[in-house]
Amino acid sequence: MATGTRRAQRRTEALSRERIVEAAVELLDAAGESGLTFRVLTERLATGPGAIYWHVANKGELLVAATDAVVADALAAEPAGSPRDEVHAVALGLFSAIDAHPWLAAQLLLQLSRSPGGPVTPRILESLGRRVRALGVPEEHWFTATSVLMHYVLGAAGQNAANSRVAEPDADRAEFLAATAEAWEDLDPEEYETTRLMASQMREHDDRAQFLAGIDLVLAGVAALYPGGRA
């Protein structure tokens, strides 16, 4: 009996929580949330379900851990430069992570709305909040400024990733934008005057440049509201 227990312990130690989460991220990237099952996970890890349940209680906990692992990796680098430059670097790290992991945007939305106590939401808030503090925002406004910035980053990055995946099956990004611009230019000129005038700008825009322009609009608002800061 003691020998069997020692063997089980050795298997559990060899199969770490980190390895389970890594395999879960791989499955999520390949097949989405529906493709992540404990049966498929045990096959990939060549183990039994008991070894996985030793580290992770259920699929919900595993999804949280996978989301947190990807976000932590995206925020691992310590950017240097002005507070604005650091905000750009943090935002682009999250932008790239959401673009690379198709399931991440939906999971981030769930974590922010259902489990703001952690671990994912505090990690993002801390990374952006430090930069908001460095901008000179008064303490009583840290939460508002950081929350606005966070929701812009996650919302815009998630929408961009969704747009990219919609375009990929039938056309590359440039073709997709050109077709959309043509559709806008064909709209009724009286009802959609402004949209038609913006069509050429949409056709030529760069996703990352537009994303960073949105960051700067948020920071300009911060600077206007708190003129003593360094935004």
From TrEMBL:
<feature type="DNA-binding region" description="H-T-H motif">
    <location>
        <begin position="37"/>
        <end position="56"/>
    </location>
</feature>
<dbReference type="GO" id="GO:0003700">
    <property type="term" value="F:DNA-binding transcription factor activity"/>
</dbReference>
<keyword id="KW-0805">Transcription regulation</keyword>
<keyword id="KW-0804">Transcription</keyword>
<protein>
    <submittedName>
        <fullName>TetR/AcrR family transcriptional regulator C-terminal domain-containing protein</fullName>
    </submittedName>
</protein>
<dbReference type="GO" id="GO:0045892">
    <property type="term" value="P:negative regulation of DNA-templated transcription"/>
</dbReference>
<dbReference type="InterPro" id="IPR036271">
    <property type="entry name" value="Tet_transcr_reg_TetR-rel_C_sf"/>
</dbReference>
<feature type="domain" description="HTH tetR-type">
    <location>
        <begin position="14"/>
        <end position="74"/>
    </location>
</feature>
<dbReference type="InterPro" id="IPR001647">
    <property type="entry name" value="HTH_TetR"/>
</dbReference>
<dbReference type="Pfam" id="PF02909">
    <property type="entry name" value="TetR_C_1"/>
</dbReference>
<dbReference type="Pfam" id="PF00440">
    <property type="entry name" value="TetR_N"/>
</dbReference>
<dbReference type="InterPro" id="IPR009057">
    <property type="entry name" value="Homeodomain-like_sf"/>
</dbReference>
<dbReference type="GO" id="GO:0000976">
    <property type="term" value="F:transcription cis-regulatory region binding"/>
</dbReference>
<keyword id="KW-0238">DNA-binding</keyword>
<dbReference type="InterPro" id="IPR004111">
    <property type="entry name" value="Repressor_TetR_C"/>
</dbReference>
<dbReference type="InterPro" id="IPR050109">
    <property type="entry name" value="HTH-type_TetR-like_transc_reg"/>
</dbReference>
